[in-house]
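ESCALATION

Customer reports they have been waiting on this structure for their group meeting. Please prioritize. Original submission:
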Amino acid sequence: MPRNLTYTFLTIGLISSFFTFDKNEKVISGKIEISWLDRLTEDFSFTEKWDYPEGVYKNEFGQLSCDGLCPTEIDRMKDEYGKIYKDSLKAFYQLVDTTHQFHSIQSDAWTYEWAGTNFVTAIRKNADTTIVYTHKNVATHSSLILIITKDKCIPTIELNSVVRSKGKKIYTCKSGRIEIDKNYWEKGILKTNFDFVFNHKENLNKPMYWKGKIFTSIDNK
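Update from on-call: job pushed to the front of the queue and completed.
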């Protein structure tokens, strides 16, 4: 199963373990009223930037290679210096995804084990509810999760710490705002500007926040 699809299933399962929906709306504190705008005038040019999938890089021989979370089959396709054999290039790129991944979020945050993220996924759970979550990576173990139900948004931060003593934690929203472009929403695209502050007991003198902009298509469940 592709890594991004596996991540989607794991995240949705984890979200479901913390949140239970009824047919009308989610019953939980930390709801933020959504401001629906006919047009968001913010700068969304960050969507023109892109990265290769995590672990894909250009080696010293000018080849796109993979290091880290890569198919084990590719190990025998490279020599001792890491150069991909010429007769293995086609098979190599059938196993390794080297497509351009355009950024879908631009944000700034202070939360635990966060070093930035450029990608977000939005999934329509049902007619009323959409789940949005930012992607984690090697250096970022916190994810912003938005539960959008009708005119309400429930933001949380999910930390899946690499520190055994911390483990898995959910931080609820204390205050904030979110604006969504209504015209894009009706076309199945989330275009939003947000700014949230979260509750956390570990350091009361240090505000936990996440703010930024998202532009991504909404996938159906």
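Sent to customer with the following note: The chain has two domains: 3-48+101-220, 53-95.
Escalation resolved.
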